[in-house]
C-alpha cells in the first residue's frame, strides 16, 4: 500500500482557500504543544484509532496526517489504510518542513524530541556498556550489540520500540 503525500505549501493553500481540512498530528502531546499547525488535532500515534477520529470509512474527504518529519505520519497513514480508510494523505516533511517553508504555526513550550531522546539514551547505554565491558566483564559488550541491533531495526523498518516507549513517558505528555 503506497501512501499519498502532499507538500506543506499545497495543504496550506487548500486551508487558505477556506477548504475544510481534517489534519491529524500524530506526535506526542509535548511535541504538539511545542509547535503545531493551527488546524491540526493532536492524536498521538500510540493512541491512533480510526473509530475515535469520527470519520466515515466510505468518505471521499481526505484525512491529512502530519508528524515531526514525515516518518510517524507515514506509519499512521499505513495503519489507517489497513483499517479501511481509503483517502489518507501524509504531509511531506511534517511540521519541520511546514515551519521551514515559513507557513504559520503555533509555538508553545519547548520540549526534547523523541528522536533526540532515543539518541541520548542509546548513546548513554552503549557508552556505559563499553566502559563496563572494558573494566568489569567483556559480556557487557552484549548490551552494546543489542542497542545496535535495535537501532538497525529502527532504521530498516522505520519503527523504533524505544521511541514508542518514550512517547508514553510522563515528560512527553502535555502539561495542562
Provide a descriptive summary of the structure in words:
This protein folds into 2 domains: 4-107, Oxidized Rhodanese, domain 1, CATH 3.40.250; 114-172, no CATH class. It is of the alpha/beta class and 176 residues long. The protein contains 7 helices and 7 strands; from the N terminus they run βαβαβββαβαβααα. 45% of the residues lie in helices and 12% in strands.
Could you give a short description of this structure?
The protein has 7 helices and 7 strands. By secondary structure, it is of the alpha/beta class. It starts with a strand and ends in a 9-residue tail after the last helix.
Order of helices and strands: EHEHEEEHEHEHHH
Give the count of helical stretches: 7
Q: Strand fraction band? A: 5-15%
Largest sheet, if any? 5 strands, parallel
CATH topology category name of the largest domain: Oxidized Rhodanese, domain 1
The CATH superfamily of the largest domain is identified as Rhodanese-like domain
- List the domain count as a whole number: 2
CATH class (first level) name of the largest domain = Alpha Beta
- Tell how many strands the DSSP assignment holds: 7
What is the CA-CA span between the terminal residues? 38 Å
The CATH architecture of the largest domain can be named as 3-Layer(aba) Sandwich
Uncertain residue ranges: none
Residue share in helices?
Answer: 40-55%
User: Rg from C-alpha positions?
Assistant: 19 Å
Oligomer: single chain
Strand order of the largest sheet: 1-6-5-2-4
Mean pLDDT across all residues, rounded?
88
Spatial shape: elongated
Helix and strand content put the structural class at: alpha/beta
